[in-house]
Design the sequence.
């Protein structure tokens, strides 16, 4: 009798432990981690990056998705303050400023989001491209909202940047699925051999990016939003699976960086993929 009662108690303790663990993971994944914010620095050593630009600091803000749960205007203000505190030389906004259909989210107009982003500061400027959510809403409207606060939307076009002896080109590539993603147009004005950073929303364009591009920067994937040890990133919105899901990718000497971004899409969950301002420090490979 005592043995049977002992087994029942152990069973109840086990069930209770499982339920408590499940509740903890739920609170973490749907509340604590999506509401968090960090600035994650990473040093990239790039072939053909000029010595005069060694140490250039590039802040990447991807998938802001203002209006997604835990990601309202207050969070946007925190993002801007943290980015400015990191003192980047250049800020790249990699698309998806608005939301569509995320559970528990509230739509925030692009004009309102742009007003928040207008407070970003960087000596070489703040530049944007559009994401698929921006195209689904109204690409022209989002572009107007950004450019009204002096944030250029580099959709398939490039601009030269310089600070002292550091000189390079920045090209924006429009969204792989919703935009034209016309690489010939994006690079048309860039002189042959010039150092070149390209940025876009969806990293699936990377196989089409020519070797003349020193670094490609993207977002879109959210790093899968959920990373389970032993299972990987369960859902990555990419035709290439986890190949371009997150971080620094090097293929055949070409360099890509994919930021896990800041907001959420579809489900308001993040687990082991916290929101981050990605701060890249660029150096020559040798």
Sequence:
């Amino acid at each position: 009798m005592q043995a049977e009662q002992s087994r029942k108690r152990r069973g109840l303790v086990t069930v209770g432990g499982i339920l408590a663990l499940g509740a903890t993971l739920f609170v973490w994944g749907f509340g604590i981690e999506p509401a968090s914010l960090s600035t994650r620095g990473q040093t990239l050593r790039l072939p053909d990056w000029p010595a005069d630009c060694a140490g250039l600091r590039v802040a990447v803000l991807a998938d802001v998705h203002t209006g997604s749960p835990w990601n309202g205007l207050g969070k946007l203000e925190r993002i801007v303050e943290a980015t400015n505190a990191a003192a980047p030389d250049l800020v790249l906004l990699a698309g998806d400023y608005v939301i569509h259909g995320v559970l528990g989210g509230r739509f925030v107009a692009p004009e309102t989001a742009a007003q928040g982003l207008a407070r970003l500061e960087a000596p070489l400027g703040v530049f944007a491209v559009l994401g698929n959510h921006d195209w689904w809403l109204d690409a022209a409207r989002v572009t107007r909202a950004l450019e009204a606060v002096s944030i250029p939307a580099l959709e398939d076009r490039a601009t030269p940047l310089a600070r002292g002896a550091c000189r390079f080109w920045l090209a924006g590539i429009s969204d792989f699925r919703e935009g034209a993603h016309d690489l010939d147009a994006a690079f048309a004005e860039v002189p042959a051999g010039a150092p070149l950073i390209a940025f876009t929303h969806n990293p699936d364009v990377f196989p089409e990016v020519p070797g003349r591009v020193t670094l490609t920067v993207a977002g879109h994937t959210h790093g899968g939003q959920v990373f389970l040890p032993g299972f990987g990133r369960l859902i990555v919105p990419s035709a290439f699976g986890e190949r371009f899901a997150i971080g620094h990718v090097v293929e055949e000497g070409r360099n890509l960086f994919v930021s896990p971004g800041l907001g959420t899409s579809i489900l308001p969950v993040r687990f082991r993929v916290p929101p981050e301002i990605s701060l890249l420090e660029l150096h020559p490979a040798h």
